[in-house]
Specification:
The chain is an alpha/beta fold and 266 residues long. The protein is built from eight helices and twelve strands.
Length: 266
Amino acid sequence: MRVLGLIGLIGVLLSACGGSAPRQQATSVPAVSLLETDLITFPEFGDADPHEWEGRHPGHYPVHGLDVSRWQGPIDWHTARASGVSFVFIKATEGGDVADPLFDDHRRGAQAAGVPWGAYHYYYFCRSAAEQARWFIRNVPKGADLPHVLDMEWTPHSKTCTLRPDGRTVRAEAQRFLDILERHYGRRPIVYSTVDFYEDTNIGRLPKTEFWLRSVAGHPRNVYPRAIWRFWQYTGTGLVPGVQGRVDINTFNGTPEIWAQWKAGG
């Protein structure tokens, strides 16, 4: 195990205690490497449209990563990893007949660079949960480092499906999808949600489920009162070395030690 720098050690301790950690400056303070996997903590990414955070902000959390799709184009994963990208969720499928054309490229690139990956499915309510689960399984091989993700949000701008089922129906469909993927891959997927969808459907009531929440203008504890979350998507306009243009950036809710345990399925 490498020796922690003073700033990184203070950050980890304060993060675990819920306090404020000093943010590292990429131009003056070298990234802190933790564990034998070269986990880089407290990265300093750019943002094309930064938010002025109050209280506990994303920089207080040590482990950060991306979610990507074809819209990011080719990615230099080695550069991204060296900048502090510790994980990635890659879009694989949506609905029952759409596959992201860059999924395999992103997956293989992340694997080659040693970036832990999982895949996500964008859900549409015009097809059954079983059909969509089968489509995901058809396109996503086993062997992911992370649990996969069910992305559930309203689709008001879709050209093919704008249905908005009631909360009970939404939760039932989510349960079926999660159960099918858990049986196939051996680990229960995470559910990604947005503020309005979470409130409208009570998706947080799903049992045995971890959540990844979008909140780009406030801490999840304020935006999703009483919600328990594993990942927080805190910007959709991030600027990360190795990635073309803007990208979503997320943080893991926990210390590097908790991250290592969770990633391993503990």
